[in-house]
Design a protein that fits this description.
Blueprint: H1 2-19, H2 29-44, H3 46-55, H4 61-66, E1 70-77, E2 83-89, E3 106-113, E4 116-127, H5 128-134, E5 142-143, E6 146-147, E7 149-151, E8 162-167
Antiparallel strand pairs: 1-2, 2-3, 3-4, 4-8, 5-6, 7-8
Helix pairs in contact: 1-2
Length: 193
């Protein structure tokens, strides 16, 4: 844990130094990307860190599978917005009307080819009927203050109406940490598992 804290602290210091340095100083592209990543996730606040803490062990997809996550929906691509990636669902968490940052219903991976996957996000999902049935005040789900998106059913995934929240805790998303789609994610290297 101390090592991770030290790495985050060093990354934030590097981002602060890079922010004060002009691009003419010769900062390479990878350093700029890392600085943007650190800055974005630092600004995103405690929710992103809580998701990273909760999903750290699932960076290895085989560990997720051992803990009951199974691939569903294939690799989800948008028509013009990039992709979400390959979703892994833990069915025992779905439909209970509860959202808990420590237990995401879905883990999202980007296919790298040759069967390798990189964890890029977590998705929290509440079936609308179950949520609305236990929250009769009409309040939509939130997680650490972040409001969920609502999707009507039926939809292209044959899911019922639901609330969802994507948290891009492991890959920078230039359109927002909580956006559904990430233009930097691709399904091009996905093969059926």
């Amino acid at each position: 844990m101390k090592r991770r804290f030290d790495a985050v602290f060093i990354g934030l210091c590097a981002a602060a130094l890079l922010a004060g340095t002009s691009t003419a100083a010769g900062t390479d592209s990878q350093s700029e990307q890392q600085a943007a990543w650190n800055f974005t996730h630092h600004r995103a606040g405690p929710l992103v860190q809580a998701v990273r803490d909760a999903t750290y062990r699932y960076r290895d997809v085989s560990r997720a599978e051992m803990d009951g996550y199974v691939p569903v929906l294939g690799c989800v691509s948008g028509p013009d917005m990039g992709a979400m990636g390959a979703h892994y669902l833990k069915a025992s968490l779905l439909g209970d009307g509860v959202v808990d940052v420590a237990h995401p219903e879905l883990l999202v991976y980007e296919p790298l080819g040759n069967g390798r996957m990189r964890l890029v996000a977590a998705e929290y999902l509440a079936i609308a009927e179950a949520w609305d049935g236990t929250h009769t005040d009409g309040s939509p789900p939130t997680l650490m203050g972040q409001l969920f998106d609502y999707s009507e059913g039926p939809n292209r995934f044959r899911l019922p109406a639901h609330y969802s929240l994507h948290v891009w805790a492991w890959k920078h998303n230039p359109v927002g940490v909580f956006s559904m789609w990430n233009p930097r994610v691709s399904c091009a290297r996905y093969t059926e598992l």
